[in-house]
Amino acid sequence: MTAGGEAQGPRGQQAPWRPAATEARLSAWVEGRVQGVGFRWWVRARALELGLVGSAENLADGRVKVVAEGAEDRCRGLLGLLEGQGTPGRVTRVTHRWGPAIGGISGFIER
Question: Rounded to 5 degrees, what are φ and ψ at 68?
Fold first, then answer.
């Protein structure tokens, strides 16, 4: 810290100011061949790598519902992975909704 109370980076340089991460809730519905292929396990692993909490749940209509909370940029990272090429099975469509983090969730579970 400097005499004025500012944070310092390496070698005494003033650290760049960064705004606090905005907490968000991502709800995503993933369509395609996403059940019975390890998709929920894959989502859980990616979410935990990103430091997110939530769940991945098989729905009766064949979709997987993903709910994730944490830093908004990390939730956006998970959404990008869900929409990307490296998923198990075959994703044909992802619809999603954003909201504020509700909290009260710990870990990431498969339902």
Answer: -135, 140
Which DSSP state fits 14?
B
DSSP 11: G
Sorted by sequence, the CB contacts under 8 Å of residue 4 that are 6+ apart come out as: none
Residue 15: per-residue pLDDT: 53
What's the structural domain count of the chain?
1
Which CATH number fits the domain that encloses residue 44?
3.30.70.100
61 in any annotated domain = yes
3-state secondary structure of 100: strand
CA distance 97 to 99: 7
pLDDT > 50? residue 97: yes
Of residues 83 and 12, which shows the higher confidence score?
A: 83
Domain presence at residue 5: no
Active site amino acids: 40, 58
Take residue 69 and report the two structure tokens written for it.
């909370």
